[in-house]
């Protein structure tokens, strides 16, 4: 029996189970390159902790004050302070001073353009969790477009506006390596 690098399959494959992105050009030989400059890896260095993503969730929902972040995410003040500092240093949030009458000046945390651009990632995780992890009660929240009332969803698409399934994605070298 010949050796194969393919995993053994037991039982019936689900529809489309074997469909994946196609590595093209010099990337087709998986052993000839490594993913040293992986954008997913770099992104996870910034938001790869549970608390960082949940703090960003709260920022998307309008939370701005330190105490509210810590309380709503359910982390200690030390964890909230560290993660918020990391998110500010990474450019996803910015600090803006505010002062309530009779109190000292404090900082609130506001989304930057870079932070707002993380929204599809967070919504994609939410959509995946709703589909596979919500349980019998269903998803705890539903997102709707304020303009027309339709359900909001995240999908992969090309610049021409086509929905693109995984099997139709070609992975090529990008940037200066392309």
List the helices and strands and how they pair.
Layout: E1 22-23, H1 39-47, H2 50-60, H3 66-73, H4 77-90, E2 93-98, E3 106-111, H5 113-116, H6 119-132, E4 170-171
Parallel strand pairs: 1-4
Antiparallel strand pairs: 2-3
How would you describe what is shown here?
- There is one protein chain.
- By secondary structure, the protein is of the alpha+beta class.
- The chain has one domain: Orthogonal Bundle (Arc Repressor Mutant, subunit A), CATH 1.10.10.
- It has 6 helices and 4 strands; from the N terminus they run βααααββααβ.
- The strands form 2 sheets. It has a two-stranded parallel ribbon.
Task: Tell how many strands the DSSP assignment holds.
Answer: 4
The radius of gyration is: 21 Å
Biggest β-sheet description: 2 strands, parallel
As a percent range, the share of strand residues is: 5-15%
Numbering strands along the chain, what is their spatial order in the largest sheet? 1-4
CATH topology: Arc Repressor Mutant, subunit A
Number of H/I helices: 6
Oligomer: single chain
Our measurement of the CA-to-CA distance between the termini, rounded to an integer number of angstroms, reads 40 Å
At the fourth level of CATH, the homologous superfamily is Winged helix-like DNA-binding domain superfamily/Winged helix DNA-binding domain
